[in-house]
Amino acid sequence: MEEQIDILSPDGSPAGYFRGRTEVHQKGLWHRTVHIWAFDGRGRVLFQLRSHLKENNPNLLDTSCAGHITAGDNSRCAAVRELQEELGVHKSPEDLEYLFEATHESVLNDGTYFDNEYYDTYRVNLSDDEIAHLVPQPGEVDDFVWMTAAEFLQRHSEHPEEFVEHPKDYAWIKEISRL
Predict the structure, then answer these.
(1) How far apart are CA 23 and CA 130, in angstroms?
(2) What is the pLDDT of residue 177?
(3) What is the pLDDT of residue 142?
(4) Is 48 helix (H, G, I), strand (E, B) or coil?
(5) Which residues of the chain fall below pLDDT 70?
(6) What is the domain partition of the chain in residue ranges?
(7) Beta partners for 160?
């Protein structure tokens, strides 16, 4: 059965019903997702290279991991699930540091895929052992790329076409690079 997702009103409040993922993106229904940024002990941030098989944004660098919040779930539990599914990392909800909420609107795939979402953003630290055992989820993630905030900012400035665009996330990375 297709993943079911709680629908939101454009103001972010619950609309009181859920729909399948396909319908959500065909109609551009507002919904919730999570973004998780993973860091190593040296302060580098993990970017995932989206699978070449993905329906949208294939072969682009993206957040460490991200995903939809399943109907009835909450963002912290969804973030823990996505870490397990996309990276093979087991974390508890308490391991996640909540950063901020943002919105994202985009039209992809020649106007056939509408992505209107509110997303919660988290930070998580990975141990050397977790990093050594990262497992990209087939069909979702092709590879991982580690960068310092400064390296990311330079690369994004020179080659923005290599990244899925997340302005609020990238503004946060710019801010932490100043610390």
Answers:
(1) 36
(2) 86
(3) 96
(4) strand
(5) 179
(6) 4-177
(7) none
